[in-house]
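Quick note —
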Amino acid sequence: MAPGIDMSKWWGKDTAKEARKGTPVVVTMENPQYSLLEIDSPDAAFRTVEKDRGKNAKQFTWVLLLKAHRAVGCVAWLGNLVWALLGAMKNRLILGQGVRMENEKSSKGRLLYRVILAFLVTALAFLGFEVIAHLKGWHYFHNHNLHIPQTTEIQGWLHEVYLAWLEFRAGYIAPPIQALSNFCVALFLIQSADRLILCLGCFWIKYKKIKPEVVGDPFKSDDIENSGSNHPLVLVQMPMCNEREVYEQSISAACQLDWPKDRLLIQVLDDSDDESIQCLIKNEVSKWSQRGVNIIYRHRFVRTGYKAGNLKSAMNCEYIKDYEFVAIFDADFQPNPDFLKLTVPHFKDNPELGLVQARWTFVNKDENLLTRLQNINMCFHFEVEQQVNGVFLDFFGFNGTAGVWRIKTLEDSGGWLERTTVEDMDIAVRAHLKGWKFIFLNDVKVLCELPESYEAYRKQQHRWHSGPMLLFRLCLPAIITSKISFLKKSNLILLFFLLRKLILPFYSFTLFCIILPITMFVPEAELPVWVICYVPVFMSLLNILPAPGSFPFIVPYLLFENTMSVTKFNAMISGLFQLGSSYEWVVTKKSGRSSEPDLLAAAEREKKAMTGHPQLYRGASDSGLSELNKLKEHQEATPKPVEKMNKIYKKELALACLLLTAAARSLLSAQGVHFYFLLFQGITFLLVGLDLIGEQMS
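Predicted structure written out below.
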């Protein structure tokens, strides 16, 4: 059909009126919502309606008002946030309400604080000097090719002092700072390359679907009456110390492991010095023992060697000499009933295998911002580091819990040693030097907790970063003289210890917390934007990949990791030079949280256990009467819990002031990316220094 041509626009108004044929049609609807419809001509109803025909000034006004309302809401939110931060600073720094100052025991920690304080005082003095020069129009720092004015151009003695400072700064201060900066950037790139290679290895494992597998049931027996006779003897050890919040759920989970009862022994290794907690744990052990579980309570009166001493003492018991494997669970770990059936079969027909490590999963990962940020690190550690090293190197650091050891491996490696606070890494390194292989099972997960307060997390990280450096000093001669291959020696020394345990906290603290603010006052030494922004953001993206739900927290994660570099650097120095704090062991505070599905599942399993042995449960009540009476006395004598307090962390606050001072200086030289990074990093240090992240500690 040929397209129609509208010729009406060529005619006049009268002609157009005559062109209208027919009479107007009026349609009246019974529904009052549709009252009247008038059609002037047959073509009027079928004309194209323009897209913006229905819009008018009133609608645009409402849209603008809506956008203005959103903008005002954002400004109000930011204002409330700033006001709350200022209020917290007033209450905690000026009034001292509900806070106490950090008690720095280590002399090295006090020295680091004094060094940061000296940098801060110097930066404030330089900032005042630069502001005066800026107001007087001496903008020499804008030009990278420094131009010193002639004698006739000098305007007074202050100008002369400023020019002398510029000349001294460019000739003597900038070169060493630039050299140190280049060195740290090189370390940063090497560590980033290592992280990238690990991620590529993880992608390869996912693509090829590589994972350790067991075909069939290696312990299956044709003898129905003695179906568990082929299962090896397994020892379960549960070291704990003053774990009031979590002992019950962890013991309950261990007692419900699906393994022949006559082939399983559970040792509850209690190092508690609180008698009321001892009574609680004794009563829980007695309850499960009366239900037919082979469980033993063991308490040391002399608590030497911390966890390593506890495990070493338990392994010397005569009644465990016939056991072949030992599974270790810390007090807050709750293994699933099929844990042993998923791990122990890997040892069958694999005599070189010494360790099977399972993955951790966290019941409180969404509790607060601190636990969310920790979850990112832990997911990357297990999904990438442990899995890649296990597949390609047959070696990784034992995580201290949620793993099964071949007891022969422990004996061959020298057993548990009390020389460091990272006994798990110590035994793993010595077993690797003896030629034993490790397997990591990413699909086998054990539920546990993350520290919910910054104080608990800080102490945990101090132990995890000081212990490896002390262990490196002790193990280096043994690594060099061992009979393992040169490649494995290089991996242990260069990657496992130096790059991931020493270089990482060193460059992170030095580059982003010291050198970057200094370069704001010494602009002749520059840090490129890609070092400050692009590479860190890319590496943070790689870290978050194993936990994709954490992508909205990429910026807080990047800033918080730089903030934690202070604690990690201090811990690394303590361990490297064998200072007193490197031997300190502080039990990580637990909250005893459990998810609702886990609580329901645990209650169901316990109900089944009670149904199977009802008469034994009553026996447990009768035999534990004296323990319950003793417990009641202790509960009556137990004082009320102390009020929760926050800490003030001096090093973090001093660094916050240093970074904010450097941010103010960067405004004078119009360095946009540097200013925003220093501003937000300084605010992050301020929040952490005021203990405004995570839960409070009692």
